[in-house]
Amino acid sequence: QCPWGTSSTTSISCSLADVMSEQLAKELQLEEENAAFPEVVAAAEGPFITGENIDTSSDLMLAQMLQMEFDREYDAQLRREEKKINGDSKVSISFENYRKVHPYDSDSSEDEVDWQDTRHDPYRADKPTTTPRRGFIGKGKDITTKHDEVVCGRKNTARMENFAPEFQVGDGIGMDLKLSNQVFNALKQHAYSEERRSARLHEKKEHSTAEKAVDPKTRLLLYKMVNSGMLETITGCISTGKESVVFHAYGGNATEDKVIPPECAIKVFKTTLNEFKNRDKYIKDDYRFKDRFSKLNPRKIIRMWAEKEMHNLTRMQNAGIPCPQVVILKKHVLVMSFIGQDQVPAPKLKDVTLSSEDMKKAYYQILNMMQQLYRECNLVHADLSEYNMLWHDGKVWLIDVSQSVEPTHPHGLEFLFRDCRNVSQFFQKGGVPEALNERELFNAVSGLNITADNEVDFQAEIEALEKMNEDHVQNHGKKLSTFSSDGDPPIYDE
Ligand code: ADP
Ligand code: MN
């Protein structure tokens, strides 16, 4: 008996076993790449997490919740015994290796922070900072070099922030503590070996979560959403990608400050880390995340992707661009409104056959959206193609914006050019003779006036502009407000 209540073995439906099978995920991925099958999996026969009959349908979940509770209590007891045995003795023994939950793994309350208030975009105001390249500050007898003991000690203390977030440094960072190089190096050594030890202890666990598309913690999160009444039912899986799994759900009850859409899409950013390595470049160089990136562990970086998607969607929503509306973000799980109807997601532009009239309409709409995105949202989609545009209600909807960056990102213009190439090619092949070529489209969206008439030179000019911006950042500690030099870009309309 399936613990989720309904199990179905018919067709390519998504039973829980399927959802949790990495093997299946890989197969689906391959299918997608071969473009032999549509990647949207038929909605499951029955819901796999429901608000009803919780008692009978979620034994496994209840068991897991109890187990987590037990582990926590067990550790607390262990700590008490440890304390009792050690007493006031100068030499103490540690029970740490017997703990069920390694301190590095326990979710602190800080982890529970949700970004429900989507009006606040914490990255917007952040200005990049540069450190002086000279090794000294001041003049004459007031000169302070980087070898100064006090300055150096304080710097070392500040550098403790770079240790894994779970590394206990007490109040050290808050007070005016001066660590000698020797002490700092010893601490650093210790922090790193702790990190490695923690990784070793959890290797087995990590491995087992990697085999499932949705790990127990995520399932618990989803379960809580249903249990709280925010969602009515999670019906099944819409899409399994390399970096995310998307589910369909029926919305539940509205709260005082929130109306839940009747149908929701739940995007779960995968907590298996390998796939995220190649996305580093989007976030590492994004000045909005610059200060945070180095301090974060991989789990938090994945949350940052979800966070980024939320903020970008909110910007788009505010500009009136058709896109999913954010409902809530919990850790690496983003709930948004569902584009589609009755569990059937709207088709991607690549899968839908449009009349030439609709095709032309779609083209001009996208041209407008790209301009709005650039000018009003200050964003470049950076993965724009017929795969990430849905056709619904007679118009195009933009999705999948976790990788979107601001135009002044060190590779922002290159990403924009790639977006333009995808859009141009799609519509030129799709029989829209009015479609601008990628270079014209790039100028139309960015308002720049790059005159090169071939791909190679054009690309070179883009890179030169990006380099100019980076040099500006280096020299003035801030980026150019915009690339545009000759006023507003022309507005293209039907
Ligand atoms: P990925 O990074 O895996 O490409 P996407 O955000 O593109 O993630 O989502 C994958 C697929 O899930 C989409 O191609 C689309 O079919 C479906 N999907 C995602 N969000 C929604 C939504 N809000 N409404 C309907 N379908 C969605
Ligand atoms: Mn996508």
CATH superfamily of the domain at 347-480: Transferase(Phosphotransferase) domain 1
Task: Enumerate the distinct ligands.
Answer: adenosine-5'-diphosphate, manganese (II) ion
DSSP summary, beta strand count: 12
> What is the CA-CA span between the terminal residues?
58 Å
From the 3D coordinates, which CATH architecture of the domain at 347-480 would you assign?
A: Orthogonal Bundle
Report the uncertain regions: 7-12, 35-44, 104-120, 125-132, 204-212, 485-494
CATH C-level label of the domain at 347-480: Mainly Alpha
User: Taking all residues together, what is the mean pLDDT?
Assistant: 77
In spatial order, strands of the major sheet run 1-4-5-6-8-7
Major beta-sheet overview: 6 strands, antiparallel
Instruction: Name the overall outline.
Output: flat
Number of helical elements: 15
Helicity, as a percent range: 40-55%
- What is CATH's topology name of the domain at 347-480? Transferase(Phosphotransferase), domain 1
Strand content: 5-15%
EC number: 2.7.11.1
Domain RIO kinase: 203-447
Keywords: Antiviral defense, ATP-binding, Cytoplasm, Immunity, Innate immunity, Kinase, Magnesium, Metal-binding, Nucleotide-binding, Phosphoprotein, Ribosome biogenesis, Serine/threonine-protein kinase, Transferase
GO molecular function, one term: protein serine/threonine kinase activity
